[in-house]
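Posted in: Protein Modeling Q&A

I'm a second-year student putting together a small comparison for a lab meeting, and my supervisor asked me to include a predicted structure for DUF554 domain-containing protein. I've never done this before, so apologies if this is the wrong subforum. The sequence is pasted below exactly as I got it from our records. If anyone can share the structure token output, I'd also love a short note on what stands out.
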Amino acid sequence: MPTGVIINAASVLFGGLLGGFMGNKFTEQFKNDITLIFGVCSMGMGIYSIAPMKYMPAVIFALVIGTGIGLWMHLGQWINKGAVEMQKPISKLFPNAKSDMSHEDFVNTLVTVIVLFCASGTGIYGSLDNGMTGDTTILISKSVLDFFTAAIFACNLGYVVSIIAIPQFILFYILFLLARFIFPLTTPNMILDFKACGGFLMLATGFRMVKLKMFPIADMIPAMVIIMPLSWIWANWFLPLL
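Accepted answer (user: helix_wrangler)
Welcome! Here is the predicted structure, written out as tokens:
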């Protein structure tokens, strides 16, 4: 049973519903300040994930090449379009789901939240770990933060945040099913570099959350796909030559 995956998706679903309902109960100052705290938390989690990195050149290569692939594919633009389409039916079902934010701020914030929930290294690694070992610790820990994060962001974005639970569940469940095929091909060092790559995405997400620098996080996602092969190639092909 994908227990951890279900719990994580449920935390986003109910956190989004709670935030959408309570949105008008909090002042703008409170919502802005608490969002800064979540940004710092995301940065801290990213730094924590980066620290045990084994092969820095492989991770840097993955980030640069992966982001290049994302920019070439216009992945960020596709996710932006998807975010806008997600909002349309929600605004019809829940008229009060509309935010006072500008359209550009709304899309930028929604994309940040989608990446935070669906593409974090912690979530992806946790889904693989849950599928391979049955351990739900990582995903449950992530769920605690996701619940409150979804609630706070839903205060501004509305009920659309709760719908992010659907793509999140689909993605993590697919990873859960693929775990039995992926894990036997990995090494501990590959896992460390994978988590470090995800840590960089979470660090960039934190910068977006505090609106300090709008990193193209969506375009960085392909780095998560190529990091483990690059880590293996670096360890087995390049290191022996150095």
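A couple of things worth pointing out for your meeting: The chain has a mean pLDDT of 84. The CA atoms of residues 9 and 165 lie 5 Å apart.
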